[in-house]
């Protein structure tokens, strides 16, 4: 088996030792693969064209070309290299698969102590590898290398949107571009500071908006907590706007506010504090007043038909002449409505569910409680004079000390035991 050394036409460097076998076409195919060119002909060291594989001897030095005339590597090396650009100032870099064309002076002059300057200051000083197109191979990220190359060109740090400055900084450290490292560190600090300021600006803007909301609510509360004679009653529209501006989990305080004559029907008024509020002549039909605080509130003449009053607090409230037909005071969880000491003179509570309700010492004189469910209710000390209790369920109700003078107990669902009333 014969061995020969193959060179690219006109170049005495980067030769490849190959075995010779088969035909001349087989040798050209091996030369194409080894040298990265499209080999079409082979010359010996004196420029003789070899057209027969038998003419090749062991340890011959051969020059392979792509169809161009033979170039003597000794006498014609400089013209060929100038033609191909090997010794010119222009060169091409293959950085991570992306090509960059620049000049040797760009890579060397700006940062003479950098890795790039040492790589390209003297030709082949570092044995730089080249691809099949003659571009110098650099295994780094092209998107981070581009800002570095531009900096070496004009001295300005320009980074496109979407490029991470930290990645460019790492590349600058790798290549030893000291002056660029300082620029990048400052740029990163400024970027972080701006981000920090933007976050805090958004935070303070949110705090500012919250403070404005609190001040507006406080002003609204102050304006509407004045005596009724100084301010007109709150309308449904104003109150709905107030409800919509209040988070559902926030406690809404409407103590002492004037809602006289307002239409608040079918609104969700759960857990609202209406203590000592003026709700006289209000329309609260079908409203949800579950667990609302109506202590000492004025509900005289109001309409609360079919309202949900589960767990409501109406201690000492004034509901004289109000209509509470078909209301639900019964809470399945066991929370009992408390109307202790309330003034319920002449109220119409027909058909209401009032299981376990506390009406201790309340006044129900002339009230209509027909067909009400008062099972287990506390009516101790209650004034039931002339009260219509016909058709009521008073099983286990506490009537001790209550005034039942003139009360009507017709069509009772359960018998009324004498032990339940001592008066």
TrEMBL record:
Keywords: Phosphoprotein, Repeat, Ubl conjugation pathway
Pathway the protein acts in: Protein modification; protein ubiquitination
Domain KHA: start-end pairs: 3-82
One GO process term, biological-process aspect: protein homooligomerization
The UniProt record lists the keyword Phosphoprotein: yes
CDD domains in alphabetical order: BTB_POZ_KCTD9, KHA
Residues covered by the BTB domain: 91-161
General function of this protein: Substrate-specific adapter of a BCR (BTB-CUL3-RBX1) E3 ubiquitin-protein ligase complex, which mediates the ubiquitination of target proteins, leading to their degradation by the proteasome.
PANTHER family linked: BTB_POZ DOMAIN-CONTAINING PROTEIN KCTD9
Protein name: BTB/POZ domain-containing protein KCTD9
Native organism: Aythya fuligula
Lineage, top ranks: Eukaryota, Metazoa, Chordata, Craniata, Vertebrata
